[in-house]
């Protein structure tokens, strides 16, 4: 009789233990379901939209990186993809490898989009990189001698831009009627110093300076080559039409995340960053 009683008590105790354990597990699962996930707990980006923007390294990627934090707070995770070969940025956008690109100005875009069949849209202007004349041999424009070898970019829009700058400095004269932002040395009708023009890929011009009397070089390439932009003998003024732009596929300009990107890039904070970091080398276009 005593043995049966002990056995009954043991069974009851075992059942109570199992019930308590079951209740504990149930309560634990419920609490776990209410806990934030890793990104939520850290104030992370659960539900954010990823925006992939292709760019040149300097200053474009540096400017984009300045707005990452503010965009994250607005639900956009900005991924900056730097292309060493800028010529691949438009094909990458066309092929939907990226959502937007940031490296070019309107005259350059206009010079190639018809040829390549790109259906792109411009969403905002960000900055101007005044193109300038640099030299390892000369200290002023007045030292440019007859027959001097001058390097200029060989892509249509920047070649025109370089020749217009030389014209503004009184060194050459271009024929009238050049309205498409395209020109070559063949369009020069007056060259009193008989300057010799070396047409070359823009990216090679900083390295070619020792072999030239001077060259007209895009500022982003000057910055990448660690050349002081203040050393330019002369440069474009801030009224240049060559503002660098955000470009997207036609129809994407109304995407909410693109509008947020444009707003961030034209903020007072970015304007201050550009002015303080780059000085005369990069000028805000807004």
From TrEMBL:
It is a lipid-anchor. Residues 1-22 form the signal peptide. It is found in: Membrane. It holds the Pfam family Lipoprotein_9. The keyword Thylakoid does not apply. Its main location: membrane. InterPro entries: Lipoprotein_NlpA. Belongs to the nlpA lipoprotein family. This is Lipoprotein. Keywords: Lipoprotein, Membrane, Palmitate, Signal. GO terms for cellular component: membrane. A lipid is attached at residue 25 (S-diacylglycerol cysteine).
């Amino acid at each position: 009789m005593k043995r049966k009683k002990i056995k009954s008590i043991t069974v009851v105790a075992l059942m109570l233990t199992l019930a308590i354990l079951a209740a504990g597990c149930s309560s634990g699962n419920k609490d776990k379901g209410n806990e934030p996930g890793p990104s939520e707990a850290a104030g992370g980006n659960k539900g954010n939209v990823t925006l992939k923007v292709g760019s040149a390294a300097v200053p474009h990627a540096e400017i984009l990186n300045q707005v990452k934090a503010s965009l994250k707070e607005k639900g956009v995770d900005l991924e900056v993809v730097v292309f060493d070969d800028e010529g691949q940025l438009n094909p990458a956008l066309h092929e939907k490898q990226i959502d937007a690109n940031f490296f070019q100005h309107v005259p350059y875009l206009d010079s190639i989009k018809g040829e390549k069949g790109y259906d792109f849209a411009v969403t905002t202007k960000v900055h101007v990189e005044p193109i300038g004349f640099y030299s390892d041999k000369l200290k002023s424009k007045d030292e440019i001698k007859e027959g001097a070898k001058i390097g200029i970019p060989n892509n249509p829009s920047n070649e025109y831009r370089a020749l217009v700058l030389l014209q503004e400095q009184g060194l050459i004269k271009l024929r009238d009627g050049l309205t498409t932002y395209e020109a070559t040395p063949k369009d020069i009708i007056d060259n009193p110093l008989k300057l010799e023009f070396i047409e070359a890929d823009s990216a090679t011009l900083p390295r070619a300076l020792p072999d030239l009397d001077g060259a007209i070089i895009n500022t982003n390439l000057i910055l990448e080559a660690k050349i002081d932009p203040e050393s330019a003998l002369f440069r474009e003024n801030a009224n240049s039409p060559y503002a660098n732009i955000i470009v997207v596929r036609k129809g994407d300009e109304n995407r909410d995340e693109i509008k947020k990107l444009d707003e961030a890039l034209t903020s007072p904070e970015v304007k201050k960053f550009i002015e303080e970091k780059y000085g005369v080398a990069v000028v805000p276009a807004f």
